[in-house]
Amino acid sequence: MSPHVEKKGDEFGDVSISLSETYQQALIAAGAIPLVLPITTSRKVIAECVKRSDGVLLTGGDDVEPKFYTKKLSPKLRKTVGVTQGERDRRELILIDEVFRQHKPLLAICRGQQILNVALGGTLVVDIAMQLPSAM
To answer: Which tens digits make up the pLDDT trace of 70-117?
Structure first.
């Protein structure tokens, strides 16, 4: 599972990970043993994590950093982007690449689907109401 990263951990004052208990409970109920991906962008470490796993879950979370899917973003649209985590995006892009390279199962939920789309060359609508005003 790919966690969210908090800016300041309680124990050492560094970053800490955050992951909803619901993901873990669902995986355990399905017979899996959930393990959390370490906070690293080392391809070697991520590749080894994927190798040792039966599958990978990309979890929900904050917005994907627009620089990963668009070269043009107006200042007006940029203001609508919520909190982003560029390091998480980089880590998950490497993770997705490794999952496909190693032919492992992948489940992507919410933000996980968005970063998967970006990893496969897709783009995202930054603000539906602004960019697609006739959308439901």
So the answer is: 888 888 888 888 777 789 999 999 999 999 999 999 999 999 999 999
What is the tens place of the pLDDT at every residue in 43-75?
999 999 999 999 999 999 888 999 999 888 888
Apex CA 109: angle with CA 126 and CA 104, to 5°?
120
Cα distance between residue 56 and residue 1, in whole Å = 6
> In this structure, which amino acid lies at residue 129?
A
Question: Quick one: tokens of 111?
Answer: 């933000």
Handedness of CA 48, 49, 50, 51 (dihedral sign): positive
- The closest alpha carbon to 2, from 121, 114, 108, belongs to 108
CA gap 128, 136 in Å, rounded: 9
Q: Which amino acid is at 75?
A: P
* pTM, 2 dp: 0.88
Structure tokens at 29: 């109920």
